[in-house]
Write a structure and sequence with these properties.
By secondary structure, this protein is of the alpha+beta class. It is 19% helix and 20% strand. It contains 5 helices and 17 strands. The strands form 7 sheets. A 3-stranded antiparallel beta sheet has the order 3-4-6, with no helix packed on it. It has a 3-stranded antiparallel beta sheet with strand order 10-11-14. Strands 13-12-15 form a 3-stranded antiparallel beta sheet. Strand 3 and strand 4 form a beta hairpin. 10% of the residues are buried.
């Protein structure tokens, strides 16, 4: 079966009366989508995204519901309303590149992870920081284009009699290589630990579990089985059985038998005469 192709068709309409725009909106609202054109083509939706009207000596282009101008357009063509979260609803010109308002979901956003190191001699200060962070409501807007989505305390390093111990806060962990390189001061579980006995020299902090590569630890066992029999034919049957086995042999989702060998046989007791 061929995969369906999706197209976004942009239609520009020039009208001389504002009332015609309202009629177009009303008509689109009355259509039930998807609209089947033929056996292979259907229109899944239609929206009015942008309305540009003359305003004295220039134009104002306003976005319809769920559509916005990107921050670059808001700045380049001078926003005629407030810029909020990096977008605006109105600009004071018709974009020279033919750009129209876009759905909010299609705007490009860039995520940054910023790590801040704090030096303090007061343990109570760390408790105060935890309390302040716990009371914050996110996201927090900074200016028109930036918002802080989350802030966490990840790592606390304290000096003791033998050196530093760096412990992870809830939901954060040290990866296995750090646990091994700097000595773990708690148990290693699922290739992670919550405490190491030094300050990492690369400035690394504890990481959320979602950012750690979980490497399963494989353990190999050699199991030796001794069989007592007085019938040599049993040994021959065992040899034949082992030759017919298809290895590796899975005994469960986590256990696999990779090899089976008969190592020693035909041991006979011979009485010693004196």
């Amino acid at each position: 079966n061929l995969l369906p192709l999706e197209y976004i068709v942009v239609v520009e309409i020039n009208v001389s009366q504002v009332i015609l725009i309202e009629q177009i909106k009303s008509t689109l609202n009355s259509i039930s989508f998807p609209l089947q054109l033929d056996s292979t083509t259907e229109i899944s939706g239609a929206n009015v995204s942008t309305v540009c009207q003359p305003n004295g000596t220039s134009y104002q282009c306003a976005c319809e519901d769920q559509y916005v101008w990107s921050y670059s357009d808001c700045v380049a063509y001078e926003a005629c309303d407030d810029i909020t979260a990096g977008t605006c609803d109105c600009i004071s010109a018709i974009p020279s590149d033919g750009q129209m308002c876009v759905p909010e979901s299609e705007l490009p956003f860039v995520d940054f992870l910023i790590e801040i190191e704090m030096d303090t001699t007061s343990i109570t200060l760390m408790d105060e920081v935890r309390n302040v962070l716990g009371e914050m409501s996110f996201p927090i807007l900074f200016g028109n284009v930036t918002e802080v989505t989350d802030v966490d305390l990840t790592t606390v390093c304290l000096l003791n009699s033998t050196g530093y111990q760096c412990r992870c806060e809830d939901q954060y962990f040290w990866p296995c290589d750090k646990c091994t390189a700097y000595g773990h001061c708690d148990d290693i579980i699922n290739t992670t630990c919550g405490c190491i006995s030094a300050l990492p020299d690369d400035g690394q902090f504890c990481q959320p579990i979602t950012e750690l590569t979980m490497i399963p630890v494989l353990t190999e066992y050699v199991i030796e089985t001794e069989i007592d029999t007085v019938d040599a034919a049993v040994i021959d049957e065992l040899r034949n059985l082992l030759k017919t086995l298809s290895l590796p042999l899975s005994s469960s989702d986590v256990i696999q038998i990779t090899k089976v060998n008969l190592t020693t046989g035909n041991c006979h007791f011979r009485p010693v005469s004196t």
